[in-house]
Write a structure and sequence with these properties.
This protein is α+β, with helices and mostly antiparallel strands. The chain contains 9 helices and 12 strands. It is elongated. The protein starts with a helix and ends with a helix.
């Protein structure tokens, strides 16, 4: 009598545990930024297969159990890696109208028509390059004529980019840093690495994956631990194209601390496009491009003949910010 009660209970418990691990495996594999997400997801799905085969072991012949195990392992691997690949490469914004934007004030009236056309240009660039977020500022007539943020400064939380969002400008810091104090660029300056990578993603200090999963899936949703993202101080969460690929269209991962090789002393130099325009207007600077992790993240375009300055910043390396800055400048030059 005891055996007939225990076996069904044991089988049900194994089945429930297997289903829970399968669900967790798909959840982890679906994490577009977690380092090793596909591998961790596969291991969890594999454990679910093992629990399932163990549950059915007494009801299947030996050959059938082994066949089920082999097929289950291949299916788990395919499911985990396919889920991860599809997630990271999926378009962030299916259509231009889906791209959110935030501006602090209405554009300068003489440039209202140019702003409408420039918005279309920026939204098209986000779709074409699959960029998480972009911020644009335009200087004309010696002042800022337009500034607006597009997309998300943090993909997971879908926190929008605003004109006040601070972007890491990479190698352009050497050209801008000296002008911070004289020009009173309040949103520009150096920050320690801990504020832009609180989890030390991809580094030895990063939490063991199981601890990270428990924190993200249990403790943080219950409000028992504060979230790491979005970053405080309106800082943009930074990404690089995944798997060493230079193409953001194929997906992204969180930027590792070692990706900031250009920044000495573990400091990241942040700025806003509006401050970059103020820098160019105040110093008569020439055009400059900032690179990070081997690819551009911001471009400052100055056209002295037209009196136009355009600053474009993105939160993913290898964004073609230079082409976007030129396109926006052409729109405003045509309006003028």
């Amino acid at each position: 009598m005891t055996a007939t009660v225990t076996n069904p209970v044991k089988a049900l418990a194994l089945l429930a545990l297997g289903l829970a691990m399968a669900g967790m495996g798909l959840y982890v594999a679906n994490a577009d930024d977690a380092p090793g997400a596909a591998v961790i997801g596969f291991l969890l799905l594999l454990a679910a297969v093992l629990f399932g085969v163990r549950t059915a072991r007494d009801r299947l012949p030996t050959w059938a159990g082994r066949t089920a195990l082999a097929v289950g392992v291949l299916t788990a691997a395919f499911a985990a890696f396919l889920t991860h690949a599809v997630t990271v490469a999926a378009p962030l914004f299916p259509q231009a109208r889906d791209v959110p934007s935030v501006s602090n004030s209405a554009p300068s009236p003489p440039y209202a028509a140019a702003v409408e056309r420039a918005r279309e240009v920026v939204r098209a660039a986000l779709l074409e390059q699959n960029l998480p977020g972009v911020s644009v500022a335009v200087g004309a007539g010696g002042t800022i004529a337009w500034s607006e943020g597009f997309g998300w400064r943090d993909v997971d939380t879908r926190t929008p980019v605003t004109p006040d969002t601070r972007f890491n400008i990479g190698t352009a810091a050497s050209a801008v840093a000296a002008a911070v104090a004289p020009l009173e660029l309040a949103n520009t300056g150096a920050d320690p690495a801990a504020v832009w990578s609180p989890e030390h993603v991809g580094e030895p200090e990063e939490d063991f994956p199981l601890f990270a999963i428990i924190r993200h899936v249990i403790w943080q949703p219950l409000g028992l631990m504060p979230p790491e993202y979005p970053l405080p101080g309106d800082r943009a969460t930074f990404y690089v194209p995944r798997s060493g690929d230079d193409n953001p269209r194929r997906g992204r991962r969180l930027m590792y601390m070692r990706d900031l090789a250009c920044c000495a002393g573990g400091m990241a130099f942040y700025s806003t496009p509006s401050d970059l325009v103020r820098f160019a207007l105040g110093t008569k600077a020439d055009s400059v491009t900032g690179e990070l992790a081997g690819g551009s993240v911001m471009s400052l375009l100055t056209r002295h003949d037209d009196g136009i300055v355009v600053a474009v910043a993105s939160n993913i390396a290898h964004a073609d910010t230079a082409a976007l800055a030129r396109a926006v400048a052409d729109v405003f030059a045509g309006q003028k």
